[in-house]
Amino acid sequence: MVRMEMRVVLATLSVFIALGGIGLSIHGSLYYLDREIWAGVVAIAIGIAGCVTMLTLWPRDLPDGTRPPHPADDAASHKHHAHHLPSQF
Predict the structure, then answer these.
(1) Of the four listed, 8, 26, 29, 40, which is most buried by Cβ atoms within 10 Å?
(2) What are φ and ψ of residue 88, in 5° steps?
(3) How do residues 14-69 score in pLDDT, each as one tens digit?
(4) Chain-centre distance of CA 23, in angstroms?
(5) Non-local CB neighbours of 62 within 8 Å, separated by 6+ positions
(6) Ranges of each domain in the chain
(7) What is the 3-state secondary structure (H, E, C) of the chain?
(8) CA–CA distance from 14 to each of 1, 27, 28, 73 (Å)?
(9) Cβ atoms 21, 42 nearer than 8 A
(10) What span, in angstroms and rounded, lies between the C-alpha atoms of 51 and 9?
């Protein structure tokens, strides 16, 4: 559980990095500062990637450590499974 809380803290930090990058990009755009614009873009990308990475649920994060059942596994167990074709217009 402590590992999950640390990931939430890091995801929150990543959001603030992305927000700072937005502010830096806006500042660079207002004053025609190319380096600040690109530094802000890099900070936005790092912040978004960090947030998505930290909030992704991994199988080891589940209580029993197993993978959740996949809906396709139930469909494969049925003997009479009708295959659906896509609609044609």
Answers:
(1) 40
(2) -115, 130
(3) 999 999 999 999 999 999 999 999 999 999 999 999 999 999 988 777 777 666 66
(4) 22
(5) 68
(6) 2-57
(7) CHHHHHHHHHHHHHHHHHHHHHHHHHHHHHCCCHHHHHHHHHHHHHHHHHHHHHHCCCHHHCCCCCCCCCHHHHHHHCCCCCCCCCCCC
(8) 20, 20, 21, 36
(9) yes
(10) 10
**Which residue is associated with the tokens 């499974």?**
81
Q: Which residues contact 48 (CB under 8 A, 6 or more apart)?
A: 14, 18
Residue for token digits 């990637």? 49
